[in-house]
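Worked example 4.2. Below are the chains of a multi-component assembly; read each line carefully before continuing.
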Amino acid sequence: MEKKDDFDLENFLPFLLNQAAEESSLAFQKVYKSRYGLLRTDWRVLFHLGIYGRMTAKEIGQRSKIHKTKISRAVQRLAERRYLTRTRDENDRRSEHLELTPAGEAVYRDLRGIAEDYDARLTAQFTRGENALLRVMLRRLAGMG
Amino acid sequence: MEKKDDFDLENFLPFLLNQAAEESSLAFQKVYKSRYGLLRTDWRVLFHLGIYGRMTAKEIGQRSKIHKTKISRAVQRLAERRYLTRTRDENDRRSEHLELTPAGEAVYRDLRGIAEDYDARLTAQFTRGENALLRVMLRRLAGMG
DNA sequence: GGGTAATAGTTGTTTTTGTAACCAACAATA
DNA sequence: TATTGTTGGTTACAAAAACAACTATTACCC
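Applying the procedure described above to all four chains together yields the following structure tokens:
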């Protein structure tokens, strides 16, 4: 298609990053959605608990930069499904400790395996060095550098 | 924080890409939102018309992979603001040609300039070679490779 | 030509998200 | 020990996205 203006939208980072993020999330999303009815924030919270064990909503927020209302709602959904338990902190009764139940652990382990395979497939398209550089650059762009 | 399980969430591409995409979109979003009250899909449609000139909703969809209902509503909003005009195709009366008005062009040029500056700032963090590689990899991941 | 399928785009309904206001528990200060 | 400010987390309401069903027009094909 003939161009009227030469701005390069396809190389504009916010656009390109979004397209890559969406496309690369799609197949994984299908799994956690169809298999467990989870939302994006749900699996993220689940993974945080699976990886780090018992933690509070606040700690999850600090680590992931997910907004606290989203976390609050994800925790509700996961608790309804009995994937996690909530226990008040006796020293500070405002916060509560979240922890996966055995059922939650099982879901985590299943999805974790799928995530690993999936990431390996994405990664296999590039060389080791390219992949390392990509991660560094993305972390920097994400403000996690 | 001590880990219970060693899955590397921060390097899981779908997660990392999303974080980078969100973070890198934020500052630009503030501009098109506060200055013109536009939504994400709105500026994308606007940019397509600014770059390629007159085109149909379908063509925009093919090029951007934005869903047709999102495009339909973005076009409505842009038309209400008199940023574009819609004219039926006489050969195929199902489709209509979209084209920016002078007002729409002005908004496009303003945002285009900001996008260029913004992208330049993001890009300045890396070397020329790193940037080239990043684009290639992202396009591949986005299925635009 | 008449019937069926395909296509461009729209609309309606339900989910999710964003934003701000809110509660309850704690901290700090006077 | 009142007072004021913070903090962890929730809720309410408005805005936006997802999904499916729909209209109108064109294409196919017997």
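Take a moment to check your reading of the output against the notes. Chain B has one domain: 32-141. Residues 9 and 106 of chain B are 43 Å apart (CA to CA).
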